[in-house]
Amino acid sequence: MKDTILLDDGSGGKASHNLIKDLVLPAFDNPVLNRLDDGAVVTVGEQRLAFSTDSYVVDPIFFPGGCIGDLAVNGTVNDLAMCGARPLFLSAGLIIEEGFSMQELSDVIKNMAAAAKNADVTLVTGDTKVVPKGAADKIFINTSGIGQPFANADISGTNAQPGDKIILSGSIADHGVTILTQREGLRFDAAIQSDTAPLNGMVEQMLAVSDEVHVLRDPTRGGVGTTLNEIALQSQMGIKIYEDMIPVKAAVAGLCELLGLDPLYVANEGKLLACVSARHAESVLAAVRENPFGQDACIIGEVADAFPGQVFMQTRIGGRRIVDMLTGEQLPRIC
Amino acid sequence: MKDTILLDDGSGGKASHNLIKDLVLPAFDNPVLNRLDDGAVVTVGEQRLAFSTDSYVVDPIFFPGGCIGDLAVNGTVNDLAMCGARPLFLSAGLIIEEGFSMQELSDVIKNMAAAAKNADVTLVTGDTKVVPKGAADKIFINTSGIGQPFANADISGTNAQPGDKIILSGSIADHGVTILTQREGLRFDAAIQSDTAPLNGMVEQMLAVSDEVHVLRDPTRGGVGTTLNEIALQSQMGIKIYEDMIPVKAAVAGLCELLGLDPLYVANEGKLLACVSARHAESVLAAVRENPFGQDACIIGEVADAFPGQVFMQTRIGGRRIVDMLTGEQLPRIC
Q: How far, in Å, CA of B96 to CA of B285, rounded?
């Protein structure tokens, strides 16, 4: 065991997974946690529930396309949606640094409220802590949430099936590149902005047309590359994707090249990946495209039972390369 | 509106209440949040649920009687219990500072797991963020939880009735004084320690003997004085307490005098206040005392409809003084 926590333990990539696997799972050992899905599905009385939590530490707290407030609401809404549930209730836990601007706090809270309204969820409980100046950086927000699983949904990272098509709901890397350019003080003519958005409406539309959606995941920290590896590992399936089918906006691709980032590993906050049976893939794709946040959706690959636990990409020039989980940490405090 | 957040905005006292009232409630305006209970009671399908959240930022993270890990588990267990619910599932959101000791993280997680087992709750979902050195202080933990309300319970800070007796489950100020002496590096012969404990078993025993428990609250930040004010305000009742009936350990009382603290405003982490009908008060008190964490419980006062929203204390020397909410912040990062 190493001596101290490193930044890449929070990357969402390989180091994060090892930390959870080595330290957390053995301590709390239970089948729900062990599934390592974006949220848990539990039963209270006769009622199945989805339950999820996420803390937000993004820096800067305001950025093109959103702020830490709507990011925190959309993030937990999406984690519940990825369980195949309709998000209903949220909690908010604020940790605020002494001296933080009241005006900015007010703006963050208004953004949270607008995002909650937009996603049709109700914030019902909360907590506020203030720590002395220097003990935290401005504001951190935890949101947790409860959702009601759709009756026809049995969705988990463990459920990918051979032959499933992989749907990606739109262009990748928008959020991560936006945050990084803000933080580095880079200025570009191209208007790029975070894709933070609630995906619960999209999921509802998808599940209305198919009961063969097997996996739903939002590729946040660690990006599409890491999320596909998680699915491959959880389901013990192989995944193949096609580089030329993955949408990346030209401005974002250019910035990634300039900054030395692989867009496959850059965080998204308003995109989902789905594994759907081949026979339902086109109708589910059409449902995704009907949603305002899914207009650029496409099928980027498929699931197979060869090479379990591995992800391959057919490159633009026809080669084939292994897509591993993110190693190291490119972008601390990206969400 | 003032320009910046001050420490006492997180005290749990008057400034915290104003912040919530002025900034948060108007933004999220809904009847569940507006009740300002320790948690929310909501309905999913046909199932009523209790839902609560709290973030823990205590400094130091290890202290006599516990650490931030068991504090975080017990705290949310207790908030659910105070809704009249049986706590079932917890989430954990960790924000860790780069460079934090792996050994300490491991100890914190083991303490969380032991506390969860002890309280008979299951941790089913979590999230870990790592922020660069200096952006947070060691570790902050958010826990959220789901509980199942007891069928005979209609418990809220709004439900105090004239004539209700006020039960306090044991001695006050142990947690706050422990943290403060640790932080100041004070050393005493007297063994004082945090009272952090799960109170769900106690609540279950209370509700087994009475359906006339009207209010349950754990007097954490802001202490017994502030919590009684919250109940008085929420229920629009007057509350009278008797100073000589409130148990304070001799060592704790001595330290409070030395440090200039009023134990009425010092945080507790394993105590509850209950408003119970007069005819059931003795049997509920007996149930509390049967619990290992309630052996020093006693009746400390009563509810009346005179002076709504106010709390009075009959002092030891026979005088009468108003007990206001905590103003200012004595003890930042107490929990």
A: 41
Given the structure tokens 């609540």, which residue do they identify?
B203
Residue A95, CB-side half-sphere exposure with 13 Å CA sphere: 35
Q: How far apart are CA B101 and CA A64, in angstroms?
A: 35
Q: What are the structural domain ranges in chain A?
A: 7-149, 157-322
B71's enclosing H/E stretch is helix B68-81
Q: How far apart are CA B333 and CA A218, in angstroms?
A: 34
- Dump pLDDT digits (tens) for A206-228: 999 999 999 999 999 999 999 99
The answer to whether the Cα torsion of A152, A156, A158, A159 is positive or negative is positive
Shortest Cα–Cα distance, A334 to chain B (Å):
10
CATH classification for the domain delimited by B157-322, as one of 3.90.320.10, 3.90.650.10, 3.40.50.2300, 3.10.580.10: 3.90.650.10
Q: What is the pTM of this model?
A: 0.96
The residue of chain A nearest to residue B148, with distances taken between CA atoms, is A44
Homologous superfamily (CATH) of B7-149 is: PurM-like, N-terminal domain (3.30.1330.10)
Who's near B256: CB < 8 A, 6+ residues apart?
B173, B177, B248, B262, B263, B266
Nearest to A130 among B10, B24, B92 (CB): B10
Q: Which residues of A touch B112 (CB under 8 A)?
A: 27-28
- Closest Cα partner for A168 from A96, A18, A275, A66? A275
Torsion of CA B9, B11, B14, B20, to 10 degrees: 50
Whether residue A91 is predicted with pLDDT greater than 90 in this model: the reply is yes
Which chain A residues are closer than 8 Å to B134 by Cβ?
134, 137
pLDDT in tens, A158-177: 999 999 999 999 999 999 99
Computed from CA positions of residues B261, B266, B272, B278, in that sequence, does the dihedral angle turn out positive or negative? positive
Predicted confidence band at A11 (pLDDT cuts at 50, 70, 90)? confident
- In whole angstroms, what is the distance from residue A82 CA to residue B70 CA? 30
What DSSP line would sit under B222-267, residue for residue? Answer: THHHHHHHHHHHHHT-EEEEEGGGS---HHHHHHHHHHT--GGGS-
Residue B189 pLDDT > 70: no
- Coil vs helix vs strand at A251: helix
Ranking A75-79, A258-262, A276-280 by mean pLDDT, the lowest is A258-262
Give yes or no for residue B235 having a pLDDT over 90: yes
